[in-house]
Amino acid sequence: MNLEKLILILIIFSVPLGQFGKIPLPLVGGLPFVNVYLNDVLIPMLIFIWFAYRLAVKKELFLPPFLGLILLFASIGLLSLVNSFRWLEMSQFAISFLYWWRWVQYAMLYPIVYSLVKESSFEIGWPAGCFIPCCLIIGVVVFAILGIFQFLFFSDFSKYAAYGWDPHYYRLLSTFFDPNFAGILLVLGLILVLSINLEKGNHIKAWILRDGNSAKHGLKNFPKALLFLLPVLLTVSILLTFSRSTYLAFLCAIFFLGLIKSRRLLILLLIFCCLAFVLVPKVRNRVVGAVTLDATARARLQDWQKTYVIVKDNWLTGVGFNAFRYAKDQYGYFRNERGLPIPSGHSGAGADSSVLFVWATTGVFGLITYLLLYGGIWLEAWLRYSKPKVKPQFLYLTLIVSIPTLVIHSQFVNSLFFPWIMEWMWIVVGLAFGTAENRVSPPNNPQIGCHPQKGCHPIFGS
């Protein structure tokens, strides 16, 4: 296993660390609001090694589809930021640039994963068939277990309000310390797990169900139980977030999967929703609060209105990616009725709608480019999924369901630009498109991970 693959594994498994992966930095030049996480160190390392190895040693570079749109959006975002230099202070410009650079780094995971998968010389060893999806699943399962642990033993977050966190009480926050962002990661993980369950002929499901060491150790029925237990664990974790945006994302995900693959899912969804609404009072209160516009719902509407004011005044070029925090400060959004400053918290740099956020920061051209990027990826995944001979079907199904689900969720919190969500999505996109272009004829040897020339490889790598 080379260094690139090792760093990618570390990046995936750093997701469950969440806020615990934060690296404290001393204030340099009076720069506040700078949070550096473990991934902010690992991803630049991976980018440097990937570029250096391909340009200096292999002298070839596999470029994925839609890379042009990624570069175009990055260019528009940078130009919008440069245009805002006239009203930003130097420290504010530097921090805004770091936000832009972070987005570029996370987007680079797409071509990196794409090329690593495409260069793989065997079909179902590392990384084309099982390894990366299994790492993603393990990561989200660990994240869910940590969330349940937090829900049971650290349920009162009001004591952390002084540090900028919302005072949640008995809600699953996991290591993100936020039920909305934790919820959408759990939903994306559930989509991947259910896509594997619903699609026939994929190697991950075949590996789980094979009679192997589990039978020798008296665990013959455990593999089948695993395919059932993982969705249950993730669904229960989603329920415990008590997040309405997460509930909506969950409904959309199951609805889309049900329409595409299994109508039985729709029946199960209806039964589950009815039971949750009737038997869990807090779920009922959250749903009713969305209809009657409780304090949280009203605050979200106010945030949309405030963001739209910035959009109207800067609809063409935006305020700069990501100078949104300082634009809101200019508009007085961080001051109370008496004009006194109020803490902006950890969400001050974003908006409660990713679409409005893109429009406000990059202008109309950035918005169009961003929508074309995600729309193009979704359409390409759908076109490939509609051709059964084009593999891997479960990854295309994951993309087809994940993209609209995430976009809908992102209209209530800025989840399209949450670092760990960006990481998940770009890895899945690179895995899907890279694996599809790296198919070889199935070997005659029925053992999973075997190649006619290279022999047999363990399912988790070589």
Automatic annotation (TrEMBL):
Keyword Transmembrane helix: yes
Transmembrane segments: 36-53, 65-88, 100-117, 129-153, 181-198, 219-239, 265-283, 356-382, 394-412, 418-436
Coiled-coil portions: none
Subcellular location: Membrane
Keywords: Membrane, Transmembrane, Transmembrane helix
GO cellular component, one term: membrane
UniProt keyword Chloroplast, yes or no: no
Membrane topology type: Multi-pass membrane protein
Domain O-antigen ligase-related: 232-371
Any single Pfam family the record assigns to this protein: Wzy_C
Chief place of localization: membrane
Official protein name in the record: O-antigen ligase-related domain-containing protein
Organism expressing this protein natively: candidate division CPR3 bacterium 4484_211
